[in-house]
Amino acid sequence: MNGFNLAWRSVIRKPVKSILLFVTVFTISLLLLSAVSSGKATIQMQDDTRQAIGAGLMIEENEADRHRRMDELSGQLDHKEGSLGGYHQEKIMINGVENWITRTDNSFETLLVEDIEKIASTEGIADYNITTVTTAARPVDFIRIEDEDVDQYSDLGGVSLIGNKDMSMDSNFLSGNAFITDGRMIKEGEEDVCIISAELADINQLEIGDRLRFGNCHDKENSTAYVAEIVGIYQVNQPIVPYMFGDTYRSENIIFTDLDFPEKVDGKAGDPLYAQAYFKIADVNEYETVKERVIGVDIAWERYDLIDNNGNMNTLSANFNEMEKYSSILVGVIFVASLIILFLIFQFWMKSRDREIGIMLSMGTPKIQIIAQIMTEAFMVAAVALSISFLAAPMMSDLTADYLVKQQIQSAEEQDLLDEGKVALSYEKSEQNVVGVQTEITSGMLVQDVSSIVLLITVSVCAAGIVILKRNPRDILQEL
Predict the structure, then answer these.
(1) CA 224 centroid distance within chain
(2) How many Å apart are CA 365 and CA 406, to the nearest integer?
(3) Where are the domains of the chain?
(4) Can you spell out the DSSP letters for 370-381?
(5) pLDDT digits (tens, 9 = 90+) for 270-303
(6) Cα(230)–Cα(167) distance, integer angstroms
């Protein structure tokens, strides 16, 4: 009788131990698949303050990928001073202690124009807009609006500029929150023009056609003053959520300009910093189809968050705080715990078969053959357990990912409570709500799962076999 038949007979002859191994392998496989897939889950979020209103899509920089790229470039510099890919690091000594200063420039932070243009050329996209990051500027010949009761020492003392390629598609105007009360919007291609708030116009007695001068907030002595003509005055239904705290960024001090004006005032002409890109969909009825086409565009999507017209934001869970790190830790814990459990199970297997093993050894059966038979039995049971775990994995993965996301949200809320009162903000934080968590079991994950189970069983059987088979058959039979 060959080894396979012997293994099969042993499996069905001792159903209790077979069921025990089946349940263990099934559970391990299910947990491993759930943990791995959770780290690659797609989390759908809704951001009420950054949503792209109307039939359109918006992209913004993904913060987690930004940190990943910084870590990658820092590693390439190998803890040395230098610059690479828009990332800069410098070593300084403070009280004899070595410290590092790191910074990034616009080329590192900006949305890539080539990626924006690729998306814009997608079938179904009618037009697109690019919006700059909010840029602080020094008012030269006019005054800004300030809170008299707030100490302005730490504030930049400026106003904030927001440039647009096509102002009609700026999110503030798309939403209907901001609207023109006098004059007109800035047209695409115009240069050195701006639109100011009604409050700013009133306090400075400004009218359409007047010119404002702006300087660099960080170089007040040597910076060039740039002039922009007022072509419109706007009002808002609700204050625009500030980019940062301080009166420089308050709603009334926001000035909309043409696309290139903020970078000139900031002393970085030709080196723009784009924060958002909005893509208008031609036919509302084809919204989902066009969205799928956009997702299929060949760009580095890990750099961006894609936000749809309901404010839903699809992002990899690796970008949702530290989900992937938690997933990796969970995989490690499962692997170690599984190795210990399987070792104990196989040690129990062999201990319960002392008589059989002793007889086989006394008949001259090689120890490696006995180990191989036990391993064959284990793989038979494991194959069935793996097959069934593959069917249950999708549902279990969704539950695991959902649990991990809820735990992170709870931790973040608890941290906010601890920080409450420590940091004073003059604006309301953006509310991002998770509206869906989706996982996917890929073929690569299945291969990884099978490989892990094979490795665990092989190591466990060999480790348990050493304990039993290092004894000679006479000792085993004498004990019995």
Answers:
(1) 39
(2) 55
(3) 3-41+322-412+424-479, 63-106, 116-314
(4) HHHHHHHHHHHH
(5) 999 999 999 999 888 888 899 999 999 999 998 9
(6) 14
